[in-house]
Amino acid sequence: MAALKATIEMESPRRFLAHGYTGATVPIHFPREGEARTGPGPMELMLLGVGGCTAIDIVDILEKERETVEAFRIEMESERAPEPPTVFTRIHMKYVLRGDLKEANVKRAIDLSMEKYCGASIMLKRGGVDVTTSYVIEKPASGP
Amino acid sequence: MAALKATIEMESPRRFLAHGYTGATVPIHFPREGEARTGPGPMELMLLGVGGCTAIDIVDILEKERETVEAFRIEMESERAPEPPTVFTRIHMKYVLRGDLKEANVKRAIDLSMEKYCGASIMLKRGGVDVTTSYVIEKPASGP
Fold it and tell me: Which residues in chain A are contacts of B82 at CB distance < 8 A?
């Protein structure tokens, strides 16, 4: 695989513009106390990357199983170490799906993402982060 | 430390809106082939988180040493595993600083970030990613 290039450019000492390898740009901000925030923090980006990665997996796997996912979200809860390096110590992801979905397929999709496909969470798990999951399936509202 | 909450919400099967624990929102997109991209991918966010984290460290440490950083960027190069999970296998970060900076301070700032402060890269290193660094100091243009 060719090298994936990105740059992080300083705009001011606590604000950076990140240019990713797909061409996407993201501001990164670490405001001083009292200063208004104008972008996510870097560790926050890592967390959102983990959630986004497994979200894409789950919806994709369920689509391939011809399941119709009407609504989908992940509620994430995480904790960081109190002293530097302030790594994540645990991340819990609660998947909330709406649709007339087979529970076995949902469970399998989550397992496949966690064990095989989601590079973001697998990297963190290998690095000692306690990543756990749960799920809730909400049945769709009945028709009129 | 209180739990840090975030949510990932599906907008369409390949596009999600991520709400981080600081209140920041980031779109995440994994377009189908041929579809226009409207946001970074999740692994890209992880990479930008690593770069942002160490960028903030370096500029902060140098400021505390009363160094004036006139310009700063990180040129990142990374590779991912060819097969799932497509984790990062290596990340190289070339720090490019401009200013009348003491090289020993720059080197020390990078070492401190990599070994002690940058939780993002330390998590990935613990997870087996080969993270390496280099730096270039550009002297400021002379006055008129």
Answer: 1
Q: What region, left, alpha or beta, does residue A119 occupy, with left being phi > 0 and alpha being psi -120 to 50 degrees?
A: alpha
Report how far residue A9's alpha carbon sits from residue A27's, in angstroms, rounded to the nearest whole number: 10
3-state secondary structure (DSSP) of residue A110: helix
Which ipTM score applies to this complex?
0.95
By percentage, how much of chain B surpasses pLDDT 70? 98
- Phi and psi at residue B100, to the nearest 5°: -85, 70
Task: Count Cα atoms within 13 angstroms, Cβ side, for A94.
Answer: 11
| CB contact (8 A) between residue A49 and residue B53 | no
Record: contact B119-A84, CB cut-off 8 A: yes
**With 70 as the cut, is the pLDDT of residue A72 above it?**
yes
Closest to B140 in 3D by CA, of B101, B99, B105, B106: B99
Q: How far apart are CA A3 and CA A92, in angstroms?
A: 32
To which H or E segment does residue A133 belong? strand A130-138
User: Amino acid letter at B97?
Assistant: L
Whole-structure pTM over 0.90, yes or no? yes
> Which helix H or strand E contains B56, and what residues bound it?
helix B42-64
pLDDT for residue A11 is more than 80: yes
Q: Which amino acid is at A129?
A: V
- B57 phi and psi, to 5 degrees? -55, -50
3-state secondary structure B80-131: ECCCCCCCEEEEEEEEEEECCCCHHHHHHHHHHHHHHHCHHHHHHHHCCCEE
CA dist A132 and A91 (Å) reads: 6
CA B86 to centroid of chain Cα atoms:
18
Q: Output DSSP code: residue B6.
A: E
Contact A46 B46 (CB under 8 A): yes
